[in-house]
User: Fold these one by one.
Assistant:
Number 1:
Amino acid sequence: MVKMPSKGSAAATTLHLWLLVLLLASSPSCLVRRRIITRKGGQPVQTLLTADKERLIRIIADQYAAIQTLNATVDMAPALGTANKGKITEYKEVRAYILFRKPSSIRIIGLYPVVRNTAFDMVSDGSQFSLYLPSKSRFIKGPNQIEKPSANKLENLRPQHFLDALLVRPIDTAHDQTLLENFTDEDNAVYKLSVIAPTPGGQLVLERELWFERLKLQLVRELIFDASGDILTDARYSDWKTYDNVPFPKHIEIERPKDEYGVVITVVKMDINKPLTDDQFQLEQPVGTQLQVVGSEPEPPKPAPAPPPAKKGKKKR
């Protein structure tokens, strides 16, 4: 039979516990370890900001609405491969120019280091894209939407992938649902805003996940998913600056795991909301290049135009 403690012994035990707590509270530092958590970009004494879903949704909407055009000079460091396959090949940094005009026109021109010859030139109007690769004398064109990924990774490259990462789309609150998670511990202090969209069949799928750090409530990451929950785009943002009175991240890392490529973008110069003309978004197939329409066999190189017929001179009398 278990012997129950008497009232006197129970009171003594409680008193001992209180004495222990008081002893620890007033004891020297050898019994107490205090740590100050200093987060990246913060101060030793810092206050984490709080926000609800509506405020974070408004931050994204205001950022998107503030930009009508964008003309940026950037350094780009491309890479091929994925962490999933355990191999990533990084290439030398190239200078690039990015042009954007709403609603969805974008052009990106990349130059080789030192010689500054064109490495690639690609443009999209939001539905169709064109990609010119001078070193291969190839001109690739097709729809922005990838229906069947190609074994040739170059054919999976889309200007729209860059646009989705550079300019985060606002959340359609009339169509999409959102969930907010406060992910704060010793190493992290972020809000995760999940965007959930219905499929034509009525099921709900995770479409995007937006991460906001809690020191300044700035966007630090966007994950875009496919219908199976696999990551299509993983974009990370840091070093936010103000260009023409509009905040924009100076450093952007973009990964496309399924397409097996990524790029790190560092802004060198940025003009926002300056006029851009239609011809700046025109890209015609150069003479002598081979046309590759996505999903079709390559065509013969584009021939040079025939020279005009020589004019007949007048006969001398």
Note: DSSP finds three helices and 15 strands in the chain.
Number 2:
Amino acid sequence: MPRENGKMPTVSSENGDSITAFSGKVSGRRRKIETEVCQICFGTGMEIVEGKGAKPCVCRSKDTQISLLERARLPRRYEQCHWNNYIPTNSSQRAARELSMQLVTGFPKTDEGLLLSGPVGVGKTHLAVSILKLLSERGFSCLFYEFGSLLKEIQDSYNPNTKSSELSVLKPVFDADVLVLDELGASKPTDWVRDTMAHVINTRYNNRRLTIFTTNYLDERINDREETLEDRIGVRLRSRIYEMCSTVKISGEDYRKRADRPNALKNSANR
């Protein structure tokens, strides 16, 4: 979404609150805001309101937002993904952006997530991360996982030489208010992979937790050699995701191949 007059885009929640799209860069190293003494509370964390007593200072809410984003496990590659630098190039991308913003404003009254599907480079991950950042800013616990990385962590938890356990890996995945599972179907569909996917997806479904998926696999078979999403994850799981999510098909050319990419999205993350 492009900026207008230098201002960040805003959307309105169902209760009428205005929400500004998160634009600050969050790195793996926490921004050292502690070194900047707040001029309201002078580092105490409490603001004195004359005649009313004390209340938590606004600087503490900023700390909370940063902490929530850090816990979301966003890879550094996606730090630059925001609404303001998602630039739709066709009607499907404009519709996907609109549906993504509707999800943000409707949550938590709705638990229906999104399945963002389409070829590489059309903005699926960019939109998913933008949703996650805005909901983190609103105070919800969010988590990002590339599906192959999640499977690898679960496999590693079976190794007696590691200090992790399957429960320690999966509990945050089950409990997060909002979970982004990137690249659904990318891992080889073995029985173990499908069983693990079913465990994760069914648990979140039963607990009515909002989940956003991205995938390069479509529901339609383009040719005899192409696999569908159902081929990759199985009939039962595809049916469950129909219940959990609205399917949003995004089309377009790979932005990485665009001639204007160095100028238009030089610092943009992988989409």
Note: The chain has one domain: 75-264.
Number 3:
Amino acid sequence: MKLLLENWRRYLSESQEDVESMIQEIKFNSTLALSVFRDDSSLLEIDGERAFEYEVSLAENPNHDVVQKFNDSLYGGERIGFLSPYSIDKLRMMDLHKIKGHNAGFAIKDGDDIVSVHNNSDLKGLASEFMRKAKELGGVRLDHFDGFLSGFYRKHGFVNVHEIYQWNEQYAPKEWIFEDVNVLDSKTSVYSESLGDLIFDDPSSLPNEKIEVVAEGGLKLNINPFLKYNSYKYGRPDIIMRKLG
């Protein structure tokens, strides 16, 4: 039976520092991915595959030169603020794939977890390329904050929503940008269908009590629909854990 993780520390059995570190990592990867995928909307993506040459470092046999280049590529942009969850030592334990001659690439952590998808170059149309290549190399799961990325990852086959971590103000990411997320839009939320079915006239008609709803992927959980709508409206979306369908 699938389980909603409502209380981070109780279920994760981790310290507050560990939980905050994990959330910062998810924020980091979500921010990087947004910078790639928003730039590469359907109008920018190029039909057909383009041949890119990748510089590669594998966890089982790290290439120190590539690790350093990937580090420089990853942190070479202006969009990530002061976040730096991956040290050189942590990067050595990942499979790193950087486009040769450009500050753009992605990593696969723990054999199947897609992270650090980034583009700090002038190249365009890399979103689909990175997803295609990452899946080809064994990437089958990823984590992100609900919003624009939900529609994009769903489009690329990551339709198995197996866990949701509800927003917890205690663990709000540092330097978080509180942007409105439309919880009723299937392109930006895993709750769109279930909450849409509960509206009679406008969002104010949503039930203001905890009830069971079915989120994307058939995941059942207890939420307050009215509070969830307002949480998203004021830039507090949930964390979504996805796998390939």
Note: The longest strand covers residues 113-119.
Number 4:
Amino acid sequence: MSENQHPILSLAAGYHLRSRPLCDGRVTMKNFELKTVPFENDGEGHEQFLEGKYDTSEFSLANYCALKSRGRPYMAIPVFLNRKFRHSYIFVPDGSPLKEPAELRGKKIGIVGWLNTAGLWARGVLSDEYGVRANEIHWIAPRKAKIDLDLPAGIRLDVVPGEGSLAGRMLKGEFDAIIVPDFPEEKGWRRLFTDSKAVEQEYFRRTRIFPTSHAITFHSSYLEKYPAAAQEMFDACLEAKNLTLRDDADATYSNFAWNRQVWEEQQAVMGPDPWKFGIKGNEKVLETLIRYADEQGLMAKKMTIAEMFVQIDEPQS
């Protein structure tokens, strides 16, 4: 590498608004040559990151909790590009008699896997908010986890391969419900929570929790070689996110006809920046995530926020 060349920093990211300025070149880094590879299916990016194809990645926090607690060589920075309320992602067939969370007790629920962060949050919410414990449900996943987990006593998790999507299998009668990270493409399902938006807004007003599913994660070897990369990546991601918040406020930017009304509603409930990066202001979200991971058997040992994330200077302007 010549004196004028910057080290390459490769990033696998989901192709969504928070990362798009990193993908299209609107945001660059000062001392690194950022090469962002966008993934429509961000799970593929996660897998390729673990295979060593990228220096850093937008990465599943459930998987990160499991790996980090086992001493694997990864380190996250507090950049949270994927956040969703997960009440909306518990689905049942249209004709299902299930109406309330309590009615899930004893039922079969299909999940992507125990290490899926959407499921981690949904199981935690069912327990904390509705008293429905994970050991009261029969969980079914299509494949075994790649990490050996010591699940808590009483958890019933069966691996049952099958053809088609979890939604398709549910609609054929294999499951009473499913918890999946994205909306099914099939028709014939409904949300368990009929007015999930109102439920989620009330949950946020009361708890101030906006669940996060992903964090930017590095191979530790890269940060050992280039420790400045953590702060520079944080700053670049913050700049990208702030650009997209500005875009959101522009009613002509979106394809949605009532975008401005949606923006105003979100501002009223969640304030000007629900997508806050950094530890400050995210303590409760992260403490809850880590607690859920520990309660549900993902963690090999208890860990603190400080052990899980690189310490970053966190300007938010």
Note: Residues 52 and 219 are 8 Å apart (CA to CA).
